[in-house]
């Protein structure tokens, strides 16, 4: 058990490339922190530096109060789970799990007891004498976890441990990892590029981009108060919609129509003196079929006409896709997000807007209809810096039919929506009812 | 992909041709070794009169048995030392970045390509001065020198195949670099080591140039050189049968070696290490 402190940790490769730029992060004892970001953002490098597999160029790394910059991995008392599992193919499951203890010269019966216990927890008992080659992907993954937990280390490091599993198993193992971490109470740093994993697993999530830490906070915090365009676009699925907007006479002139700003928002934007051109961000769930908006809420939003292109019914929700006249919002951050999500590759139209509507809606494809957008839940971003000008504003979400504060479902699967309990609380972790079965 | 009858016939006959080209000379030698000295030149592929005389003949004197012992001893010692050193060097080449790495690789290649014949005279003089001439060490040292580049090149290819993450995992599990090598990497590279060992062994076993140049008596003379000293039963008979018999005998260890280890060589020992 130990806390991990990264103090302006920097990684510069010999060729001058800056992989990680001055990361400062304090991970409390027993905390589950997720490092998330698109590929190449430096999250794995950061993890490897904590592990001791990569040298730290600048800054200080402390584990349990002790500076470990120059300490060899074996002396840091941390266990790591690799993306490829990295099981020793010439050893049985038992030998794989016992390897670290054997190197530490633990007495034989103690090793046996610990391995048996870990195997029981991970449901591997009947596979202990098999070789990794004869195990399924999920079993190999569990062996990799077992190898880490038998050691009872000060901290776990996990490098995309679930990304080699198929989608169904990944959801199951995600719950398993979460349960295991809670049970053991060991400080854990978990790297992933999957924002769903980040949102559902972590006590806190650290979003990285280009080697720079963008924002650290609880999953809800990142979702509701993203500090910048990148975090806003990265967290949440379907992603936040962005469109260019112009500030005029206390109103936002957008492609959705003129949106009146609340005093709070107007003040926040004016104080930042970022010019009249801004980017407006709207979460898919901020939209609603105008016909379904209760009359007492209608005043909080703006109604606009659209022609729906595609309707996807998820049962619990309906996703409606439509396009707006005029060009899309443009910024380097949005381009990177588009690349990361693959949208740039398939050439999809960037200004396609997604709305998450109530399942009751009667809208259908290529039909002209009216949508309503909740103007209390808007995010306004600086067009040059990408900074969220409205991030400090407490979004009132209690009246919107409970839609606003809820995490959207990440994928059309059977995962439960994770209800957030408020800005400061960790998300409630619910166990999916035998996901997939 | 479905293969047509035409393809099957084509590949089949090509395979048969290749196998015949490889096997006929061997069968010929075997056949010669069983031929009676009088019928060696009878032009028949199979012996008309089978005899064991050639085999018993070469074991009559200690000349051949002594050479056989020299050959086995020298080849085994050279192979062992070369593979041990080469595995360390190859591991460093495959995994580490160190100054002079390219020079090391270049030097190894240089040695492998250097015409051996040009070194015989200097080696002869050096070994005579050092008292290594006509000793086991006098052959083992050059064999190691020429076996190393071959071993380094083969082994580094094998080491490169082993996922690097295994080594990282070993480090995280508390292994020192040496433990990571001996407990994780070396066992996984075992098929590569056997393959390399066989190649180096064959190199030493087959050498004629150094064996004939750096020895003068049966003290260190190996079989390929000793065969050259065989004589017929009279001044006017060629020792064809004895040479054939000796050739068959020195081929046997190689065949045994390869048969014994071929499963280990072929086995994909790394399967299951990482997602595959």
Give the topology, please.
The complex is a heterodimer of chains A (about 425) and B (about 280).
Chain A: E1 4-12, E2 18-27, E3 32-36, H1 43-51, E4 58-63, E5 66-67, E6 78-81, H2 93-103, H3 108-121, H4 137-149, E7 155-159, H5 167-184, E8 187-192, H6 195-201, E9 204-209, E10 212-217, H7 219-224, H8 229-234, E11 241-248, E12 251-254, E13 257-260, H9 263-271, E14 277-282, E15 287-289, H10 295-298, E16 301-313, E17 317-323, H11 332-341, H12 343-346, E18 352-358, E19 368-374, E20 378-382
Parallel strand pairs in A: 3-8, 3-9, 6-7, 7-8
Antiparallel strand pairs in A: 1-2, 1-4, 4-5, 9-10, 11-12, 11-14, 12-13, 14-20, 15-19, 16-17, 16-19, 17-18
Chain B: H1 5-33, H2 53-58, H3 62-95, H4 101-113, H5 117-130, H6 136-161, H7 164-172, H8 177-188, H9 190-206, H10 209-213, H11 223-228, H12 240-266
Helix pairs in contact in B: 1-12, 3-6, 3-9, 4-6, 6-9, 7-8, 9-12
Average of the residue pLDDT scores of chain A: 83
- Which outline of chain A best applies? elongated
Q: What characterizes the major β-sheet of chain B?
A: none
Quaternary structure classification: heterodimer
- Using DSSP, what is the number of strands of chain B? 0
Residues in helix, % of chain B: over 70%
Query: Count of DSSP helices of chain A?
Result: 12
Shape of chain B: globular
Mean pLDDT of chain B: 86
Contiguous uncertain segments of 5+ residues of chain B: 268-276
**Unreliable residue runs of chain A:** 396-437
Q: What are the main properties of this structure?
A:
heterodimer, A: 437 residues, 6-stranded mixed β-sheet, 5-stranded antiparallel β-sheet, 12 helices, B: 276 residues, mainly alpha, MetI-like fold
What does this molecule look like?
The complex is a heterodimer of chains A (437) and B (276). Chain A is of the alpha+beta class and 437 residues long. In chain A, 25% of the residues lie in helices and 28% in strands. Chain A is built from twelve helices and 20 strands. Chain A has helices at residues 43-51, 93-103, 108-121, 137-149, 167-184, 195-201, 219-224, 229-234, 263-271, 295-298, 332-341, 343-346; strands spanning 4-12, 18-27, 32-36, 58-63, 66-67, 78-81, 155-159, 187-192, 204-209, 212-217, 241-248, 251-254, 257-260, 277-282, 287-289, 301-313, 317-323, 352-358, 368-374, 378-382. In chain A, strands 6-7-8-3-9-10 form a six-stranded mixed sheet, sandwiched between helices. In chain A, strands 13-12-11-14-20 form a five-stranded antiparallel sheet. In chain A, strands 15-19-16-17-18 form a five-stranded antiparallel sheet, with no helix packed on it. In chain A, α2 (93-103) crosses α3 and α2 (93-103) runs parallel beside α4. Chain A is elongated. Mean pLDDT of chain A is 83; it is low at 396-437. The radius of gyration of chain B is 23 Å and the shape is globular. Chain B is mainly α and 276 residues long. Chain B has one domain (50-275): MetI-like fold (Orthogonal Bundle), CATH 1.10.3720.
């Amino acid at each position: 058990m130990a806390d991990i402190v990264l103090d302006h940790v920097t990684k510069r490769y010999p060729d001058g490339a800056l992989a990680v730029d001055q990361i400062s992060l304090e991970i409390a004892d027993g905390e589950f922190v997720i490092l998330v970001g698109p590929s190449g953002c430096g999250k794995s490098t950061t993890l490897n530096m904590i592990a001791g597999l990569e040298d730290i160029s600048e800054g200080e790394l402390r584990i349990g109060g002790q500076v470990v910059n120059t300490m060899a991995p074996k002396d840091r008392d941390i266990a790591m789970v690799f993306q490829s599992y990295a099981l020793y193919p010439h050893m049985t499951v038992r030998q794989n799990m016992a390897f670290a203890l054997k190197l530490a010269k633990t007495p034989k019966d103690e090793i046996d007891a610990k391995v048996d216990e870990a195997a029981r927890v991970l449901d591997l008992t009947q596979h202990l004498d098999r070789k990794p080659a004869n195990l399924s992907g999920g079993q190999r993954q569990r062996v990799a976890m077992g190898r880490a937990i038998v050691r009872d280390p000060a901290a776990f490091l996990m490098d995309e441990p679930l990304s080699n599993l198929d989608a169904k198993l990944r959801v199951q193992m995600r719950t398993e990892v979460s349960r295991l971490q809670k049970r053991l109470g060991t400080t854990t740093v978990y790297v992933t590029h999957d924002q769903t994993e980040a949102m559902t697993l972590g006590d806190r999530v650290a979003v990285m981009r280009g080697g720079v830490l963008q924002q650290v906070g609880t999953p809800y915090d990142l979702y509701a108060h993203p500090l910048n365009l990148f975090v806003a676009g990265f967290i949440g699925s379907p992603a936040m919609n962005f469109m260019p907007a112009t500030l005029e006479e206390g109103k936002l002139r957008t492609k959705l129509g003129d949106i009146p700003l609340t005093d709070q928002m107007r003040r926040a934007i004016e104080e930042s003196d970022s010019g009249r051109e801004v980017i407006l961000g709207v979460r898919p769930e901020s939209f609603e079929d105008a016909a379904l908006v209760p009359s007492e809420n209608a005043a909080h939003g703006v109604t606009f006409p659209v022609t729906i292109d595609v309707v996807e019914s998820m049962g619990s929700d309906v996703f409606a896709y439509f396009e707006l006249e005029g060009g899309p919002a443009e910024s380097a951050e949005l381009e990177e997000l588009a690349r990361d999500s693959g949208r740039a590759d398939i050439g999809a139209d960037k200004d396609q807007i997604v709305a998450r509507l109530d399942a009751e809606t009667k809208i259908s494809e290529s039909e002209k209809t009216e949508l309503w957008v909740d103007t209390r839940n808007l995010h306004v971003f600086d067009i040059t810096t990408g900074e969220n000008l409205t991030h400090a504003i407490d979004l009132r979400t209690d009246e919107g039919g409970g839609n606003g504060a809820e995490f959207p479902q990440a994928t059309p699967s059977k995962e439960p929506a994770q209800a957030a309990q408020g800005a400061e609380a960790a998300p409630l972790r619910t166990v999916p009812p035998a996901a997939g079965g | 992909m479905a293969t047509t009858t035409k393809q099957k016939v084509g590949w089949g006959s090509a395979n048969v041709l290749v196998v015949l080209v490889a096997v006929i000379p061997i069968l010929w030698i075997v056949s010669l070794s069983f031929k009676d000295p009088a019928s060696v030149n009878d032009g028949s592929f199979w012996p008309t009169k089978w005899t064991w005389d050639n085999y018993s003949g070469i074991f009559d004197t200690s000349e051949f048995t002594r050479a056989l012992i020299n050959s086995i001893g020298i080849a085994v010692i050279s192979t062992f030392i070369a593979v041990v050193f080469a595995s360390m060097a190859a591991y460093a080449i495959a995994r580490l970045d160190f100054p002079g790495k390219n020079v090391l690789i270049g030097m190894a290649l240089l040695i492998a390509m250097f015409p051996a014949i040009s070194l015989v005279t200097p080696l002869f003089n050096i070994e005579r001065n050092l008292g290594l001439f006509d000793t086991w060490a006098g052959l083992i040292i050059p064999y190691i020198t020429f076996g190393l580049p071959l071993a380094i090149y083969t082994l580094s290819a094998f080491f490169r195949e082993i996922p690097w993450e295994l080594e990282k995992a070993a480090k995280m599990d508390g292994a020192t670099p040496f433990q990571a090598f001996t407990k994780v990497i070396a066992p996984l590279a075992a098929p590569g080591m056997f393959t390399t060992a066989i190649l180096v062994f064959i190199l030493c076993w087959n050498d004629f140039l150094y064996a004939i140049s750096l020895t003068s008596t049966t003290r260190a003379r190996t079989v390929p050189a000793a065969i050259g000293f065989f004589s017929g039963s009279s001044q006017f008979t060629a020792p064809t049968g004895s040479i054939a018999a000796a050739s068959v005998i020195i081929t046997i260890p190689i065949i045994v070696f390869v048969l014994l280890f071929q499963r280990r060589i072929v086995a994909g020992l790394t399967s299951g290490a990482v997602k595959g």
